[in-house]
Structures are given as structure tokens and as C-alpha cells.
Amino acid sequence: MFRRILIANRGEIAMRLIRCMKEMGIESVLAYSAEDADSLPVQMATESVCIGPAAASASYLNQAALVEAAKAASCDAVHPGYGFLSENADFAALVRENGMAFIGPDPETIRLMGDKEKARELMKKNGIPTVPGSDGLVDTADEAVRVADSLGYPVLVKASAGGGGRGMRRASCRDEVMAAYQDARAEAQAAFGDSSVYLEKEIVRPHHIEFQILADRYGGIVQLGERDCSMQRRRQKMIEEAPAGCLTPRLRAKMAKAAITAAKASGYVSAGTVEFVVDQQGNFYFIEMNTRIQVEHCVTEMETGIDLVREQIRIAAGMKLSVRQTDIHPAGHTIEVRINAEDPQQAFAPSPGTISFAHFPGGGGVRIESAVYSGSRVSPFYDSMIAKLIVHAPGRQEAIHKMRAALEELTIEGVRTNINYLYLMMFQRDYLLGQFDTSFIEENTEKILKWEKACRKKAGLTG
Ligand code: ADP
Ligand code: ADP
Ligand code: MG
């Protein structure tokens, strides 16, 4: 087993990793930016090393500085968390070249699955349904129009290197294809330094259903059930839950099998997620694979009782999976919400600043993942997600009631948050009935924001 692991990340996921390493008797070395000098993970880690200034490009994305810090601190492995360098094949390779383990899949697998168009081709070859789309990359606007016409509208122009909802544009008719093509390319070039795009037919009102996978180096591979991540705003997940009410046992089994096939086809080792969209008729289509620990991994942990980060670390250290498929029995119902420092009333603009007071809910079945404390600062330099609140209960209704109670208790002052917005979401009739798809949040936000404004006014809060 490893003795010391470098954490190349920050915020809540850094805390999650440090806690797990403590439990495993492994020392944690946190690489942090000058901006994060006062952050909780800096205090919690065994050792902390400043690797550069605030800008991510100079710190959390600075491969050379991270590898140097890891070597100087005698680490034997690097955990990238999610975001930042977690899906960067070059970084994974660099860590290895320097004699350390990268806690994630092999660089070749990251490269292959990071190219969403290539991943799509590989899935097709392995008999996994993919969304009807272009045959390979689309290189000119004229070709984009031709392909879109033949697919039928609406279509999505998607960046091969895309992630986090970026590099994707919709065209609802022929006139919009040109602009969608150019905008997607430009955004992908700016965000990922790669402008390649492909086309997919847009599935109407789908569910986003993903399966969690774990695989070791010895052919051991298991799936830990699904998560329904259809509650999205601008193609970014906001609320995630398991199990997914839209799946019949038969469909779940078919998708689980496809997820295992997908992982095997890519030579997958470590924790990973296979993402699908499911249409209203119950047809499912592969969209992409995320080759890292995901933001919403805790949902699966609450359902199965399996610590995914621990498994990731064990696998990277050359150990076999500690669980067999027959040991995995997801139970009860889990819901996770992402708490962001943002102002829903100002188009969800980030709201950085100092947190004057923070109180987190507790009790049975309530889990908080956060690096926030009273007096801590929310930096404008990084992602606005400041906490995840996860609840687990025997059934969905009980989980929703637990989530409401926990959100009522959760208090974060000093910055604007989406707490009230999420709370009001827990009262939407169709959500309660389990009748939602990826359009739900977009369609209900205006109503909820009006409601939130009225509540604030009634409570005597200005602004
Ligand atoms: P996931 O696929 O794990 O659900 P999302 O699709 O919501 O995650 O987000 C994708 C990407 O958005 C992440 O891989 C990361 O690049 C970025 N991201 C989201 N939250 C954070 C965060 N707290 N810190 C850094 N990056 C983040
Ligand atoms: P990213 O790499 O940014 O996570 P994805 O390919 O996973 O991009 O797509 C992000 C979201 O966009 C999905 O969760 C889903 O809600 C929506 N989406 C993606 N592809 C399609 C499609 N073909 N039809 C309908 N919705 C889609
Ligand atoms: Mg995705």
C-alpha cells in the first residue's frame, strides 16, 4: 500500500480524499495555490505545499510543479480528484514517468475515452447503442448542415474534448446549424485547446442515467448501480439520485451489462462512470465515459456502503477489488444536491466572498461534503460549488422529507447560495411524483425564482 499520496485538488474533494487516506493510514500531501493558503484541507492534510499563485493554470493545472512537489515530499502516488487534471492523459503519464502511481485509469484509457467521438466509435463497435449522429468528426459548416439535415432536428454539435457541459450547442432547425457549429468549435478551442466537433441527434426529454464502475488490474469488474442525474441546469448536474425511478428491472440490467461492456472495451482500471441518455420509450444510448471519481460518487456510496475512493486507492496500489458483484446490493434511496455560492436571482452568477457563518445539518442519513467553515473565503478563481448535501432514507418520499429538513437547517451566511432554490425544488409536484427529465429545471426555474423572491420579501430580507 502507498505511504504518502499527493492530492492535486482543492475544496470539498480534497477533504474527501484526506479523510479517506487518514482512515487507511496513508499520509496526505496537499498541493495548494497561494489563494487557498487558509483553506481547511491545508490544515487537515499531513503536509501542505504551496505550488503557485491563484490562477489554476499556474497551480492546480501546473503539471511540472505538481510532480516536483510530489517528488520532493516523497509521495508514491497522486490523486487528481475531479476537474483540473483528473482527465488529462499527459499528466497521468508524467506522474508515472516520475515513478509514482496515478490514481485513475491508464493514460491510454484516459486519452481514448476523453475523445468523446472516438469513445462513441468504440462503443458502436462493441454493440452498445449510441445516439444517431455523424460518422466521425465534422470538419466544415457545410458538412454539419448536410449531416443535420439527414439526422433530422433538433441536433447537438458536441466538442470531442468537451466536459462540464461546455463545447455543446443545439440547433433546432437548418438555419441554426451554422452558428451552432461555429460557436461549439470556438468554445471548445478556448476551453480545451481542441476545436473538433461531431453531431448527435438530440434525444427529446431524456433522462440522464449513469452507471458506476470499478475495475482492477486482474480482470475484476463490478457495477454499483445507476444514478439519475436528469436534474440539470445548462447541462450541469444540480440534483442527483438513486435508484432511478424511470428504469424497469429489465432495462436496468441491460444498461448495467452495457456499462460493463463499455469498461471492458476500453481496458478500464479504477473507478469510472458510463453515461447514457434514456428516451421516453425506454431506449438507452451511450453518451460518454468519465474516467475519474465523479462529483456525485457519494450517492452510490450511500446506496452500497462501498467507499469508492478507498477502492480507487487500493486498485492503484495493485490490489484486487475488495467486493464481488454478488456482494453489491444498492438499498434505500439517496438524493444529493450541490450547494453553490451563486445568486439564483442574478442568473446564477457566482457569489464569492467571506462566509460569515456556516452551520451544517446532521443526524442519521445526512452527509455533508464540504471544506467551508465560519470565516472561510469563497474564491472567485475556482468553481462555485462549496458543499454537497447527501441524504439517505428507506424510500424516495422519506429521502425528500429528509432533504427538506436538512436544507432548512443548513445555514450559510455572507455569500449568496442556491440553498433556498434547492429547497423550493423539493416541493415541485412533478418532482415529487418522479416525473422529471433533463428539461425539468430549465422549465421550472422561472416559477421557483418568483417564489423565492416572494419568500425573501415576506421574511423581510432585502435584495
Ligand atoms: P460530474 O461529471 O462529476 O458529475 P460535472 O459534469 O458536473 O461533474 O462537472 C464536470 C466538470 O466540472 C468537472 O470534471 C470539473 O471540471 C468541473 N467542476 C465541477 N465542480 C467542480 C469543483 N468543485 N472544482 C473543480 N471543478 C469542478
Ligand atoms: P459533458 O462532457 O459536458 O458532460 P455530455 O455528453 O455528458 O457532456 O452531455 C451533457 C448533458 O447534455 C447530458 O447529461 C444530457 O443532459 C445532455 N445531452 C448530451 N447528449 C445528448 C443527446 N444526444 N440528446 C439529448 N441530451 C443530450
Ligand atoms: Mg457528461
From TrEMBL:
The lineage of its organism: Bacteria, Bacillati, Bacillota, Clostridia, Lachnospirales. Coiled coil: none annotated. This protein is a component of the acetyl coenzyme A carboxylase complex; first, biotin carboxylase catalyzes the carboxylation of the carrier protein and then the transcarboxylase transfers the carboxyl group to form malonyl-CoA. It is an enzyme of class 6 (ligase). The keyword Nucleotide-binding applies. It catalyses: N(6)-biotinyl-L-lysyl-[protein] + hydrogencarbonate + ATP = N(6)-carboxybiotinyl-L-lysyl-[protein] + ADP + phosphate + H(+). One of its GO terms (biological process) is malonyl-CoA biosynthetic process. It holds the Pfam family Biotin_carb_N. The keyword Transcription regulation does not apply. Residues 120-317 form the ATP-grasp domain. One of its GO terms (molecular function) is ATP binding. Its EC number is 6.3.4.14. Residues 1-446 form the Biotin carboxylation domain. It comes from Porcincola intestinalis. PROSITE patterns: ATP_GRASP, BC, CPSASE_1, CPSASE_2. Pathway: Lipid metabolism; malonyl-CoA biosynthesis; malonyl-CoA from acetyl-CoA: step 1/1. This is Biotin carboxylase.
